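Form 12-C: Joint structure prediction
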Amino acid sequence: MWRLIATRLAAFVPTVLATSLVLFVTVNVVPGSAAKAALGIDATAQAIARFEHEQGLDRPLHVQYLDWLGKAVRGDFGTSFQNHLPVGPELVSRLPVTLELAILAFLIANAIAVPLGALAAYHHQQRLDSVISVFATVLGAVPSFWLATVLILILALTVKVLPAGGYVPFAENPAKNVSLFIMPALSLGLVSSALLLRVMRAKMIEVLSSDYIHTALAKGAAPNVVIWRHALQNALITFLTVGAVEFGWLFGGVVIIEDIFLLPGVGQLVLVGIINRDYPVLLASALTVTVVVLAANMVVDLVAAVLDPRQVHARSRA
Amino acid sequence: MSAEARGHRRQDRPPVLGIAGLTIEFATRRGAARVVDDVTLDVWPQEIVGLIGESGSGKTMTALAVLGLLPRTARITTGDIRLSGASLLGLPEAQLRTIRGRQIAMIPQNPMSALNPVLRVGAQVGEPYVLHRGADWKTALTQAVRRLADVHLPLPDERASEYPHQFSGGMQQRAMTAMAIALDPPLLVADEPTTALDVTIQAQILRLLREIRDEHHTSMLFITHDLAVVAEMCDWVYVMYAGRILEQGSVERIFARPGHPYTQALLRATPTGEAAQAELISIPGSIPSPVDLPRGCRFVDRCPYRFKHCDEEPPLLTVEADHTARCWLVETHG
Amino acid sequence: MSVQLAQRERHWVGRSAVHWRRFRLLLIGGCLVGLVVLSAIFADVISPYSPYDIDVAIKLQPPNRAHWLGTDEFGRDVLSRVIHAARISVKVAAVAVSVGLIGGGVIGIAAGYFGGPVDMVLMRFMELLFSFPAILLAIVLMAVLGTSILNAMTAIGIIFIPGFSRLARAATQDVLRQQYIEAAHTIGMSDVRILTREILPNIITPLFVEAMAAFAYAVLLESSLSFLGLGAQPPEPSWGNMLNTGRGFMDQAPWLGVVPGMAMLIGVLGFNLLGDGLRDVFDPRLREAA
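Section 2 - Result
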């Protein structure tokens, strides 16, 4: 078990480093762009040179990266070009918002995808399967930001049961906090659930056609016993691994969703960084969103491994 | 058990398993595929009855029909399946579930894939007690350990709490056997139970199955493609080909005087000795598709002795006592 | 009867019902895609008004006989704008998918064909790209490249490269395992000839099928970028920027937000269905693959 966690962690750290390198190079690859972004397009060559020297941007790229990395691991992500405040504390204050949104969206997505996917698989090639599959296909084609807009139109503007946007910390007012997160989490979660549902259905169909399910049936097990005791855990092992990756791929949507619902999270900070061409902010916030996704992947992977005795229990003597 | 013994048993009570005129069809785009055609087969108490055939002969479909686990697209068009005299066809699914695992149990071809990888072996072996006897898991586990001991699994206590992947192939098949005999069902359906195992392990499992028949008075429908295994295990044998029974009789008689050219070819293809890995594919030609069956005898395309009469399918003709074959030449041979 | 065993049917058991169902998907997908693509091509002919003509006198009109889908905050005809917006979507998606297809195809074939360290380095890098959330990567690329339609095409194309490369690699390895490639080597065929004569024809189908699915996602990504103001720039209409503007008028003119969303839905759904349908037609083995 501990070995399992250790191997997953050992794979996690280099991935994070590599993603940070890719983002760093991407953001800094165009020479002079940072200075122009900070000083305006009509900055003089002298001003640009001075700025680059101050910021250490005239050094070779790998030196810059190592310098940035050295500081980043200590929580120092530089200062914003825009308001000259340190980026680190800003991230820390925004991270809980994004995490809450991510967790809620993930829970909603799975709460829909797992039972419906299993149900569709159980009724494979029957009417219920068709209905669920059509539902998933249509839902999967809905852009999350449009769903968000429609939800606001219905729930906030027409029925007026939920606030249209904003943020209150959970500690301050739990009820208000949750009510503010419902629509953003639904927007991301529903759309992701469509994709996860298809994955779950496929995995469950695979499991239900396996020999050990036949064994369970031959023992006289009823359908609910077959599904819950014999099939679900097996399907979840592969579903979680694949599903987490797919969910992460879609999770970039937070950038838009946080913006629409005025949630002061890290995703919104990415947009702030882009609009202001504030490279330290952009780099740090984009990396944070990526790391959140990678960490979530790792956790889900671990959960999947724990569900699988073949990974936890080594082959014994035999 | 000898053939005479079988004739004797016939008098006093119904067979454990009685299949009469069973026909199974699938609806396909190219018309109905008749995978099992008018099969009649009996398993008498304490008999091990072999059902031998190539893949695609319909032997596995027959077994699935007995368990009531045919694919949804399959349909039993005619015939009956009786368990100790009571018909299974037309029973509601809920009632079939009370029969599966308690009256009929299955020993699978590939124990590795037939065991659930995420459940402990003990829980899987003991599950029939929970499903059918309403036992709690603790009791079920105790029973499972007892059954694992019955099938001579070493250290059953410890092994019960292990997972299938921690077992060797032979141990896995022992576990499957323990699961099958958990509730002492009168009938076991063994579907190629040794095909996936090493030769040395095969012999052990076959010995175990014979022992179970002797000690638990179980009857067995033994499905295989391996004549050597039939010779070693069975009292009575049905030879199946393209959905049809081509020959049936006591094992001694059929091996001594095979009546059907197909059986003869099978026997020639089987090397004598323990290590028989007979591949029926060695007979030239291939089994006809069930949507495109020959008009007369099913074996006509591959038969070296075919003649004009073969356009018409022969009935099962008597070769001798306790031995019939579906070939016109049987009569001429006398 | 239990359903689980449906999978155990013998291969010859008919799938006519399934076939028809799949064909139906293909048909619906084809119609939706046809609608979008034809709108894009003949936008000038079929749209009732110019998408740019401003007439403040008729601003924010709800759907009516003259303007079937209403007018926007400048009095422009929403229907005409939605039709013209299909152009941007289809154009961006087509170029982006081509970038992904060619880039990913080359990388994947190289990795699969040469194997060893080449394979390892290339695929590690692809995995890395794949570990970024898609939209985030597109946004960051747009920030660096600068806002323009051309850059949107490039950014979205780059996102597709890992997916196509994986597929191309797997397909290449599949082909290489076949006997005839070994035969080709033995008779002294050059690498290039083997690639073009043997491998390319065999991997084109899975790549093409994947391209349809990518098309759907490209439409979605382009809309996302335009929604954020990083793609098509006003006054040029795109579904994303129309929705973004419409968002500000949700309480007084909801059609401004609803209409472009429906258009996106039609486009994405159409390409998805078409992709699913083609997948089944060309490669039944992938039927249940995730």
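Section 3 - Comments
The CA atoms of residues 159 and 167 of chain B lie 8 Å apart. Chain B touches chain A at residues 67, 69, 94, 97-102, 105-106, 108, 110, 113-119, 124, 127-128, 131-132, 162-163, 165-168, 171, 176, 179 (CB under 8 Å).
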